[in-house]
Amino acid sequence: MWAPYLCEYEGRFYIYSPPITACAWSIAEHPLGPWSEPIDLGINAIDPAHIAENGRRSSTPTAA
Predict the structure, then answer these.
(1) Where are the extended beta strands (E) located within 1-64?
(2) Is the preceding omega at residue 34 within 30 degrees of 0, hence cis?
């Protein structure tokens, strides 16, 4: 796994995994877990990030 991205948003923790096949994320209530099963974002890019605006959450990859 390449440089995962970890963040906290509204009391939940998110970890974004750069692709082996596609970007994925997992969610937990505490940074030590337990973590959800990875959710495939269907994005094949590098450096995913967590962006929240007006209460909405989205994943925005950095173009390669």
Answers:
(1) 5-9, 12-17, 24-28, 39-40, 50-53, 56-59
(2) yes
Is residue 14 within 8 Å of residue 35, measured between CB atoms?
no
Q: pTM higher than 0.85 for the full model?
A: no
The span from the CA of 35 to the CA of 28, in Å, is 5
pLDDT tens string 5-36: 888 888 889 888 876 667 788 899 999 999 99
Distance CA 16, CA 37 (A): 12
CA–CA separation, 2 and 4 (whole Å): 6
